[in-house]
Amino acid sequence: MARTPLRSARARAVLETEPGARLDKRAEAIRRLEARAEDERRSFLRMASHELRTPLNSILGFSELIAGEIYGPVGAPEYKTYAELIRDSGRKLLTLANQVIEIARLESGAADLVSRREPLDHILDDVIDSLTDEIRRRRTDIHISGQGSLPDVMVDPKGVRTALSALIGNGVTHGPENGRMDITVATADGAVHLEIRDQGPGIAPRDVPRLLRPFEQGENALVRRGEGAGLGLPLAAMLCRGMGGALTLSPGESGGLRVQVRLIAAD
After folding, report:
1. What is the pLDDT of residues 80-136, one digit of tens each?
2. Confidence band of 40 (pLDDT split at 50, 70, 90)
3. Do the beta carbons of residue 136 and residue 174 sit within 8 Å?
4. Which residue spans within 56-190 are E strands per DSSP?
5. Is the dihedral of CA 142, 145, 146, 151 positive or negative?
């Protein structure tokens, strides 16, 4: 009887040296490391978001005050022009920072997309309003078929606006001045299908996959002439997938880009 504990200890030692037991321990160690890495990644994204946005918001706020001469004339007219340049550059940098952070959040699974019922009319109104300055500057004529009676969709409110702002903004930026953009909406098989057609320079079919890779554009990344870092389309695709939808790109029949977005229809 006195030897039983010793036999039990030896049996446990033998079991623990079995391949299955070693694999279980290794898998548990990997899970702990992955959980720790995920916590550190989320902490970094929160820190980066705060540390980037806080100074940029100050730059934007004060440059707008100066450009608007809220507290009186700034003197030489060049100073007002410089303040406007600072403001515009700050907006571009803030957009880039937001896109980089959001892509990192989506890739790491840290982005919490919560879908709810949203009227597509309201979504598109908000998106167009957010792009008013660029639309006016480019004098782009945007036609939305069926506007005012569009269906509701099940989407994350911020995510869908970010995605559609990137898609429509891309068409405005790369389209010609005094150009036209057509947006059509159809419902089929429990989904709402948006199609966005612009009059941009067009793209070869073989180059379409590159547009969905971060920091890529239709042209060669080292010699491209267009504005932007090439993050809008990849971010939009990731957001659509995250909301249970999809995004596909194809060359337009007569030039430009054809963007098809599938979203879940509300019951």
Report:
1. 899 999 998 888 888 888 878 777 777 766 667 899 999 999 999 999 999 998 899
2. low
3. no
4. 116-119, 141-144, 152-155, 180-188
5. negative
By DSSP bridging, strand 246-251 and strand 191-197 are unpaired
Phi-psi region of 80 (alpha: psi -120 to 50; beta: other; left: phi over 0): alpha
Residue 96 amino acid letter:
L
Owner of token pair 């790491």: 108
Q: What is the pTM of this model?
A: 0.69
Determine the Cα–Cα distance for residues 171 and 149; give it in Å rounded to an integer.
Answer: 24
Q: How far apart are CA 72 and CA 44, in angstroms?
A: 41
The burial class, CB within 10 Å (0-12 / 13-18 / 19+), for 62 is middle
Cβ neighbours for 179, distance < 8 A, ≥ 6 positions apart: 138, 139, 140, 141, 198, 199
The dihedrals phi and psi of 253, each to the nearest 5 degrees, come to -65, -35
**Cα 187 to Cα 194: distance, rounded to the nearest angstrom:** 9
Length of the chain equals 267
Identity of the residue numbered 107: E
Give dist(CA 226, CA 217) in Å, integer.
8
The Cα-based distances of 57 to 60, 63, 64, 233 in angstroms read 5, 10, 11, 25
